[in-house]
Amino acid sequence: MELNRIYLDHNSTTPTDPRVVEAMLPYMHQTWGNSSSLHLFGREAREGLEASRETIASYLNCRPDEIYFTSGGTESDNFAIKGVAYALREKGKHIITTKIEHQAVLESCEFLETQGFDVTYLPVDEYGIVRLDELRKSIRDDTILVSVMYVNNEVGSIQPVDEIGEICAERNVQFHSDAVQAVGRIPVDLKRTKISLMATSAHKIYGPKGVGVIFIRKGSQILPWQTGGHHEDGMRSGTVNVPGIVGYAKAMQIAVDEMDDTQKRVSALAEDFRMRILESVPDTKFNGHPTKRVMSTVNFCFRGAEGEALIVNLDMKGIGASSGSACTSGSTDPSHVLLAMGIPPEIAQSSVRFSFGRGNTIDDVDYAVMAVKEVVERLRSMSPFYAES
Question: Active-site residue numbers?
């Protein structure tokens, strides 16, 4: 019998939309010039590059000259944090972030600590949301940057970025946000929020891998982090990936134009799955805010069943899920996000994230509920610790 193939890991990556591939192909076969070249071949590629910049800026509601292309969210986060730190180190060396950030942010901050910077790691509440009073109290005269992700990649919690932006603006502190899990899933309006710098990535919204954006608001102080040429107005050296960028613009257009219908349908599937798991699998803890999250993300702790064993056994049933961020999938440590939310390590170790996407159906939910129930029961029956508890 053919194995079911059900993908429930859309927070890690998404399949490239055929419409995106179609938009990219001419820039691989026909308009393949280097967009920095002055001749006809380069100018043609440049037209596609700049048209894509304008499209992405229009959907984020910012200026095209505030959009710079990178290789993805990780590079954009590194660029923002290190670039601001070195641009403003004479003003101050204090940075504020949270305990639940993506490793691209956390490891950038840890690196800066080795360079003489002081970093405050804010706690979060039980839902994984930053406490605004803690942020206010943490800002000092020498604070130069606050970095808080827009949407958490493991539990989907949405941070109060509008309020954070206001606090940072009042204190004249630049505000960076990793919006990789937000763009294309919830409305992001850069005219409304006071975000100074923002990271996004194409492959999270059915675009190609290896393409991202860093938004840098006019007036922000930042030094280029990647040197070696004049590309991207001197801000990010390296020959730009024009086919990928064209694909990102198309993916952005589709994601935002179809957001309401897509998110309504996908969120309903995810919520159905969440409720049925909680009803049918005892000793299960749901992680994250019930409503203030991207609803397509569902994270559980299954007490008595080890997370990695769950992932492997679900994979054997054809289900792709995750124990957290794809960038930390090789780690056997409990999720740093769940630990920051106050979940004990022995329970956090049993976590699985299911993230739904456009291609999922109610049949997927039916099969996944049955498979999760069966796998959890089998693993618990093999655990002497669960039997004792």
Answer: 327
Backbone angles phi, psi at 183, to 5 degrees: -60, 130
Residue 248 has pLDDT above 70, yes or no: yes
CA-wise closest residue to 185 among 114, 116, 133, 258: 258
CB of 96 closer than 8 Å to CB of 139: yes
Strand-strand pairing, 118-122 and 319-320: unpaired
Across 81-233, the runs of DSSP E, i.e. the strands, are: 94-98, 118-122, 143-147, 174-178, 197-201, 212-216
Q: What is the pLDDT of residue 36?
A: 64
**Mean residue pLDDT across the chain:** 93
List the alpha helices (DSSP H) in the chain.
Answer: 18-24, 26-29, 40-60, 73-87, 103-113, 132-138, 161-170, 242-257, 259-280, 307-316, 336-340, 345-348, 362-381, 384-388
Contact at 8 Å (CB) between 46 and 35?
yes
Distance CA 69, CA 58 (A): 15
CA dihedral in degrees (306, 308, 311, 314; nearest 10)?
-50
Q: What is the pLDDT of residue 2?
A: 65
Q: How far apart are CA 329 and CA 320, in angstroms?
A: 13
- Which residues are registered as beta bridge partners of 281? none
Say how many residues make up the chain. 389
Domains assigned to the chain = 6-15+259-388 (3.90.1150.10), 18-257 (3.40.640.10)
Q: How far is CA 366 from the centre of its chain?
A: 27
Give kind and range of the element (H or E) at residue 74.
helix 73-87
pTM over 0.90? The answer is yes
- Of 316, 246, 226, which is closest to residue 50 (Cα–Cα)? 246
d(CA 49, CA 242): 6
